[in-house]
């Protein structure tokens, strides 16, 4: 039995709740504020991991599912809104992907440690690359490099 009300879990929930607002700001072309809030979201991602690793009482099985879920929600919302704002070229999905890990369905009570998700190095690198692409695309209109060849290569 564990407490689901940890600081890292609350930071993940804040990141999930921030995602739709960030998407709205991007579609309304408020890129300066969007970039600042994206940086804040990145800081909460680093902070929740640091807290969970530093204080064992703050680590939870729920957090092991919430953290990657928050990352995927944030990245998905940003990709869609950046595509809508024409800052990322349209993307084609060959098949729909599920945002929720299959193991999440095993959590009937978030207080019980029924599963622990451990991300692979490959998934961490993949997420980092996606976040870098989103950050560069979001920064492009703020710093006037939307026509950069390097940005287009990144896409």
TrEMBL record:
Indicate yes or no for the key word Transmembrane. yes
State the reactions this protein catalyses: a CDP-1,2-diacyl-sn-glycerol + a 1,2-diacyl-sn-glycero-3-phospho-(1'-sn-glycerol) = a cardiolipin + CMP + H(+)
Q: Which organism is it from?
A: Xenoophorus captivus
Q: Say where the protein is mainly found.
A: membrane
EC no. given is 2.7.8.41
What name does the UniProt record give this protein? cardiolipin synthase (CMP-forming)
Enumerate the subcellular locations listed in this protein's record, separating them with semicolons: Membrane
Q: Which branch of life, at top level?
A: Eukaryota
UniProt entry tagged with the keyword Transferase? yes
């Amino acid at each position: 039995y564990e407490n689901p009300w940890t600081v890292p879990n609350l930071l993940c929930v804040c990141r999930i709740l921030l995602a739709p607002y960030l998407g709205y700001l991007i579609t309304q072309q408020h890129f300066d504020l969007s970039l600042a809030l994206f940086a804040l979201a990145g800081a909460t991602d680093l902070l929740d991991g640091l807290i969970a690793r530093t204080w064992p009482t703050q680590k939870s099985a729920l957090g092991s599912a919430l953290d990657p879920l928050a990352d995927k929600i944030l990245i998905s919302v940003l990709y869609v809104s950046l595509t809508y704002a024409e800052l990322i070229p349209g993307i084609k999905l060959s098949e729909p992907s599920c945002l929720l890990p299959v193991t999440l369905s095993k959590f009937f009570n978030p207080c019980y440690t029924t599963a622990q998700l451990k991300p692979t190095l490959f998934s961490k690198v993949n997420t980092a690359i996606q976040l870098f692409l989103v950050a560069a695309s979001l920064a492009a209109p703020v710093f006037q490099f939307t026509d950069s060849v390097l940005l287009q290569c990144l896409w």
